[in-house]
Design goal:
Radius of gyration: 11 Å
Number of domains: 1
Strand order of the largest sheet: 1-2-3-4
Structural class: alpha+beta
Helix content: 10-25%
Order of helices and strands: EEEEHH
Number of strands: 4
Mean pLDDT: 94
Strand content: 25-35%
Largest sheet: 4 strands, antiparallel
Number of helices: 2
């Protein structure tokens, strides 16, 4: 299992952990909550962690997974 965790610059999101074998993404919020998304392509994760506003990307793109 190869999981990569990214700290994000966001007022709402603390980090994102991605398992490239299962293609699952876990987003952890600053208030201790977490969201798991399945079958997320690697390029979407790259766009998310590199986005100017991870919160906006979360609501616009990730909620569809």
């Amino acid at each position: 299992m190869a999981t990569t965790t990214h700290a994000l610059r966001s007022s709402w999101i603390e980090s994102a952990s991605y398992d490239d074998q299962t293609r699952s993404l876990v987003v952890t919020t600053r208030n201790g909550g977490s969201y798991e998304f399945l079958l997320v392509p690697p390029n979407v994760v790259e766009q998310f962690v590199g986005s100017e506003s991870p919160g906006k990307f979360f609501h616009a793109v990730l909620k569809g997974y």
